[in-house]
């Protein structure tokens, strides 16, 4: 179904261009700050990862001259290349925020190109925040029009829809008028790509970097006068019919209730508090609650029962993880680690952490099964209960019926956000830069020139001040930091 009253992208472009700082609500501003801060943190954690490091060693990548920083390095390059590398790094650990309506990750297509543009052109933090909010509105509105057929067909919405968000945000940030914004969106439609068949490989985070770069490229081409078809969405050989199939989309949903409220304010926008599969998070939270409220320790535990919603279990029922990836997708290990160490950190899912003898002892006491009282096809599909039997015979439990990450009515506190940010950022920055960077991001709308902020993202010490750089070097992978002693 097409939207009446003109080409879809022309109507969309008029809304993007009409957005101003006066349309920001206090809640949308606060949510934008949080999403941007969280994304910068996970990007710094991702820069030392192999997918980002291999990109940096690939001939022709990040070699063009320019003012845009590759985060956690001293290398500056073109905005396009910085968007590609930083965008890939931002999704390297799958630790970035996500949206149930999108069926993907909404911030990673936006933050990397916006920071690159802001550096290249000396733009303000308020302008970046505005572009971020309207970019997110664009990509999630498109998701409402095509999901969940789009997702179920095998497209990766982070990329296939994120490219529109990146184009919209970039066009808004550089001040394109409505006709050129529509062209940018049309070009983005021809650069949309990303297959779920590549999940579990380096191609998945590359999707995020690729769409960030493509969306920015679309806006820059439109700025120079490039021409494309604004009717590319509703055309019988256009995006909607080709990607979803005739009859499997509803373009009117793009515009219904636009900005009432802004998508950045929606309850379905969620952060990942823990660096592992999101389906394990409700169970982790319940174990942490037991530890906090009951004061239990590993030494007094006789048995642990983990009962997630049935849809959370097939990909996380891994009672004997032996690799870092296996640990991330083991609800048993995630719950045991929460008991042993408190809030799980990145290091808990790296190296041989899962083979720790005490973790292995507790894993032998742990079982997981689908919760019998949580309907498989009910509205709430992100619940879990954790039951701990103690050696003195007491049986303690905590249950949550719905916890899709941390957001909406259950946001991360400032302390929790800082704890995650610090854990991530110390892998790519000198430690003395982390707190000042966090504080600047927490007031990003007050930054007059984003280049003043991004200086704090530059690599300033050997090994970046973080243990992950050292670990990667020990494993024999040459690091591309750009550091000059």
Give an overview of the whole structure.
- Residues 274-430 form the MmgE/PrpD C-terminal domain.
- Residues 10-246 form the MmgE/PrpD N-terminal domain.
- It comes from Humitalea rosea.
- Belongs to the PrpD family.
- The protein is of the alpha+beta class and 485 residues long.
- It folds into two domains: 8-270, 2-methylcitrate dehydratase PrpD (Orthogonal Bundle); 278-400, 2-methylcitrate dehydratase PrpD (60s Ribosomal Protein L30, Chain: A, 2-Layer Sandwich), CATH 3.30.1330.
- The protein is built from 20 helices and eight strands.
- The strands form three sheets. Strands 6-5-7-8 form a four-stranded mixed β-sheet. Strands 1-2 form a two-stranded antiparallel sheet. Strands 3-4 form a two-stranded antiparallel ribbon.
- Helix 4 (79-90) runs antiparallel to helix 11, helix 9 packs parallel to helix 11 and helix 17 (414-425) packs across helix 18.
- The radius of gyration is 22 Å and the shape is globular.
- It starts with 7 loop residues before the first helix and ends in an 11-residue tail after the last helix.
Fold blueprint:
Elements: H1 8-18, H2 26-46, H3 50-57, E1 68-69, E2 76-77, H4 79-90, E3 98-99, H5 108-121, H6 125-146, H7 149-152, H8 157-160, H9 162-173, H10 178-190, H11 203-223, H12 239-244, E4 269-270, H13 281-294, E5 301-308, H14 324-328, H15 331-341, H16 357-363, E6 366-368, E7 384-390, E8 395-400, H17 414-425, H18 431-441, H19 450-454, H20 467-474
Parallel strand pairs: 5-6
Antiparallel strand pairs: 1-2, 3-4, 5-7, 7-8
Helix pairs in contact: 1-10, 2-4, 2-17, 3-4, 4-5, 4-11, 5-6, 5-9, 5-11, 6-9, 9-10, 9-11, 10-11, 13-15, 15-16, 17-18
């Amino acid at each position: 179904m097409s939207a009446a009253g003109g080409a879809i992208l022309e109507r969309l472009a008029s809304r993007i261009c009409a957005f101003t700082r006066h349309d920001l609500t206090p809640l949308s501003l606060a949510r934008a700050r949080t999403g941007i801060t969280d994304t910068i943190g996970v990007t710094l954690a991702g820069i030392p990862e192999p997918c980002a490091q291999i990109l940096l060693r690939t001939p022709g990548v990040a070699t063009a001259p320019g003012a845009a920083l590759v985060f956690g390095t001293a290398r500056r390059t073109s905005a396009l290349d910085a968007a590609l590398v930083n965008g890939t790094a931002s999704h390297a650990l799958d630790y970035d925020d996500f949206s149930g309506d999108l069926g993907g990750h909404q911030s990673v297509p936006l933050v990397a190109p916006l920071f690159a543009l802001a550096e290249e052109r000396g733009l303000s933090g308020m302008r970046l925040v505005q572009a971020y909010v309207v970019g997110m509105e664009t990509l999630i509105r498109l998701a409402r029009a095509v999901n969940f057929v789009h997702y179920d067909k095998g497209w990766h919405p982070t990329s296939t829809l994120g490219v529109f968000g990146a184009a919209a945000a970039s066009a808004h940030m550089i001040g394109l008028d409505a006709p050129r914004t529509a062209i940018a969106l049309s070009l983005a439609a021809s650069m949309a790509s990303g297959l779920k068949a590549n999940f579990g490989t380096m191609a998945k985070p590359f999707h995020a970097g690729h769409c960030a770069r493509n969306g920015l490229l679309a806006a820059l081409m439109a700025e120079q006068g490039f021409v494309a078809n604004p009717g590319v969405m509703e055309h019988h050989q256009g995006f909607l019919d080709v990607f979803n199939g005739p009859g499997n989309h509803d373009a009117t949903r793009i515009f219904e209730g636009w900005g009432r409220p802004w998508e950045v304010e929606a309850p379905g926008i969620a952060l990942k508090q823990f660096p592992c599969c999101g389906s394990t998070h409700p169970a982790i939270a319940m174990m942490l609650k037991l530890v906090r409220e009951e004061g239990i320790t590993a030494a007094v535990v006789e048995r642990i029962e983990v009962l997630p919603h049935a849809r959370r279990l097939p990909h996380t029922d891994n009672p004997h993880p032996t690799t870092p990836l296996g640990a991330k997708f083991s609800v048993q290990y995630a719950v045991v680690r929460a008991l042993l160490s408190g809030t799980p950190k990145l290091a808990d899912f790296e190296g041989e952490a899962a083979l720790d003898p005490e973790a292995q002892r507790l894993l032998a006491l742990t079982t997981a099964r689908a919760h019998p009282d949580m309907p498989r096809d009910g509205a709430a599909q992100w619940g879990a209960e954790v039951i701990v039997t103690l050696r003195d015979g007491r049986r303690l439990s905590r249950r949550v019926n719905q916890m899709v990450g941390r957001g909406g009515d259950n946001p991360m506190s400032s302390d929790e956000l800082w704890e995650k940010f610090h854990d991530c950022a110390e892998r790519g920055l000198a430690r003395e830069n982390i707190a000042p960077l966090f504080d600047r991001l927490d007031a990003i709308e007050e930054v007059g020139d984003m280049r003043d902020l991004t200086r704090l993202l530059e690599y300033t010490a050997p090994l970046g001040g973080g243990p992950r750089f050292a670990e990667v070097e020990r494993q024999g992978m040459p690091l591309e930091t750009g550091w000059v002693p």
